[in-house]
DNA sequence: CATCCGTGGCC
DNA sequence: TGGCCAAGGAT
């Protein structure tokens, strides 16, 4: 993609975002870095509509990292509700503690400091630095990867893992100006979330349809390696979810309740032990468990 | 690098 | 109906 095409791509996406961006709470002018950080952890593998109410309740109860750090991890897990992957609640709590200990209670602004926090990987560190602090970073999430795969590379879906070539493409497209780069990051994500979707891309409504390599090639079908879906029925994840749901909804969970929730004894015991090992559950007395206090 | 880790909605 | 997907991270 040459300089003129890159400029056209920037202009089209940024103009589209200016017009169509959703008014999400963590994007408001009054949104704190902590609000942005909480949203990013919650949004990992979780749809926006499900995050909205939990994010609001979370910020209401714990407006700063110090507020959360002063709480028990069990309360964080309970507040997490049914967002899924509850270890994220533990990581957010641990991150809040680290922020208090290492950063005076303020969410750090540098990529490296963010990356060092629990639950913060490359994507989340880049996203917080970019969205909360206006810094210039390549923000490669599933949406951006799909947009670039289609518009630039001309394939329907990106590879399973981020490749060097893919990162090079994203880096080459990142606007030089810091503020513009930050807007570009959120704008390309939004385009992937609202228009260039995985299942039914709305090419008719796409601001870069005229520049899209995948569309120009006639929307060739994906021909890469099969993208494995995650099994669910009968897995440890389902079993763990059942058990933890009991603990969220009560002060104490008994062995009888756990047995009623999952028939297989071996798997049940393994998952129970796993939840305790992960810090999601505490054994109070033999046969009785609760969220960590 | 492959696998594990929740949950719910959609076509 | 069930596979697929949703702002990934840790190991």
TrEMBL record:
Limits of the HhH-GPD domain: 42-194
Pfam families tied to this protein: EndIII_4Fe-2S, HHH, HhH-GPD
Lineage top rank: taxon: Bacteria
Broad EC category: hydrolase
Cofactor: [4Fe-4S] cluster
Catalytic activity as recorded in UniProt: Hydrolyzes free adenine bases from 7,8-dihydro-8-oxoguanine:adenine mismatched double-stranded DNA, leaving an apurinic site
Enzyme Commission no: 3.2.2.31
InterPro entries listed in its UniProt record: DNA_glycosylase, Endonuclease-III-like_CS2, Endonuclease3_FeS-loop_motif, HhH-GPD_domain, HhH_base_excis_C, HhH_motif, MIG/MutY
Keywords: 4Fe-4S, DNA damage, DNA repair, Glycosidase, Hydrolase, Iron, Iron-sulfur, Metal-binding
Protein family (similarity comment): Belongs to the Nth/MutY family.
Protein name, UniProt field: Adenine DNA glycosylase
Native source species: Nocardioides zeicaulis
Source taxonomy: Bacteria, Bacillati, Actinomycetota, Actinomycetes, Propionibacteriales
